[in-house]
Sequence to fold (265 residues):
Amino acid sequence: MKWDAGSRACRIAVLVAATAIVAGCSQATTQLPPGASDADKFLFDRGTEAVKERKWLNAREYFRNLVDNYPQSPYRPDAKLALGDTYIGEHSTESLLLAANEFREFLTFYPTHPRADYAQLQLARSFMEQMLAPERDQTATRDAIKEIEIFLQRFPNSPLMPEARKMEREARDRLSEANYRVGHFYYRIQWWTGAIDRFRDVLATDPAYSNRDAVYYHLAESLLRSGPDKKAEALPYYERLVKEFEKSEYLPAAQKRIAELKSPS
Fold:
């Protein structure tokens, strides 16, 4: 089911309200022991231990107690981030929406915090974890790319940059694969104009697409099969495939086509 921005916001509001009720009902499980000092540290340490054991709900109760009841604690920002991490760890559709909400709130309350880069990247990750297969709706993929781009712009010197670049490539590959598959469908039904337009769009919007060898080959083939006057347009794509890819399932066929197109008539 496809959710627009309004329905997604409403869904998050309902989930946040439900989470608050659950947290209130479970507060007894995070009561401090009698005589405990440094209560905020106690809650943070217990929550961290629960995370290591992948006890997401228990960890969340400790972190939520700290965030809600110790506004001046130096552990509060990290606890807020940890809350989002527990939702990502739970990895359900609902929890990933709540994770995004936690990281957005962190960035609103602590825009200049030293870990704001982490919050932004985790916000992107909450959408990455919702990405669907290429043949399905790509709204979450586009949302992930949007948040990664914000990271790249705001935190160019972050030590998390290599991870962000890796995530960006994965998300863009997913979107480009979805686009390529539409073109390949047109290719299979021999609608060459539609295939050509779609393949060219993939290369224009994502020239670094990891599987562009397939795009080069099928674009060249579509041009070649659309009419004898397209040979000159097809040849450069075969040549780009051979030049840019040492290994490709399309390499032998591309080399054969190059030889055919360059041979005297």
Remarks:
- Confidence is low (pLDDT under 50) at residues 20-28.
- The chain is about 75% helix and 0% strand.
